[in-house]
Design a protein that fits this description.
This protein is α+β, with helices and mostly antiparallel strands. 50% of the residues lie in helices and 17% in strands. The protein is built from seven helices and four strands; from the N terminus they run αααααααββββ. A two-stranded antiparallel sheet has the order 1-2. A hairpin with a 4-residue loop joins strand 3 and strand 4. Helix 3 runs antiparallel to helix 6 and helix 6 runs antiparallel to helix 7. The radius of gyration is 32 Å and the shape is rod-shaped.
Length: 172
């Protein structure tokens, strides 16, 4: 008995390969998504865990584990899309969603890979009163440069009571 079978399209034929079947499986995709969700939740929401690991949030999202999970999701989603979904108008919605998820993954890798993190100390504008001596300068006080703020002290070297008052402050 002779049976003729129609050959499968090239991409769909790939599903017979075990590694392709593994990466395109629904369970693989759900597992990776779950791991990404757990990792992101723990790192973002539970700061003591991040402090225990001695990482900032940016370092945690640049960590090799997070990057590996994102890459695995991209591999699995691309493999599943190419081997399981026919490129027809009926499947345009699914293809759009998969493309959007891939764009989010690439965007997150780009964002966390190129963002510069830092802590910038922003001091309020201040008026500083310093004592100048031969060869040295000593800060006596500083007053917030905000209208209505003042400082006063008795300073015999200046003839008694001294008062510094901020009458007006303008932004720069």
């Amino acid at each position: 008995m002779h049976m003729t079978t129609e050959p499968l399209p090239t991409l769909h034929r790939l599903r017979r390969i075990p590694i392709v079947r593994f990466f395109s499986s629904l369970w693989f995709g759900i597992s990776v998504l779950t791991l990404i969700t757990v990792y992101a939740t723990v790192i973002s929401a539970i700061a003591p865990v991040r402090f225990e690991l001695e990482m900032t949030e940016m370092e945690a999202f640049r960590h090799w584990l997070f990057v590996t999970l994102i890459v695995l999701l991209c591999i699995g989603l691309t493999t599943a899309t190419l081997t399981r979904i026919r490129f027809t108008i009926v499947n345009a919605g699914v293809l759009t969603i998969h493309s959007g998820i891939l764009m989010l993954c690439v965007g997150s890798l780009w964002y966390f890979g190129t963002k510069v993190e830092g802590i910038v100390r922003l001091d309020s504008p201040r008026i500083e009163l310093s004592s100048l001596s031969v060869g040295s300068t000593r800060l006596v006080t500083s007053v917030l440069a905000e209208a209505g703020k003042d400082w006063s002290a008795t300073m015999p070297a200046f003839g008694g009571q001294i008062k510094v008052e901020v009458l007006e402050a303008t932004g720069t």
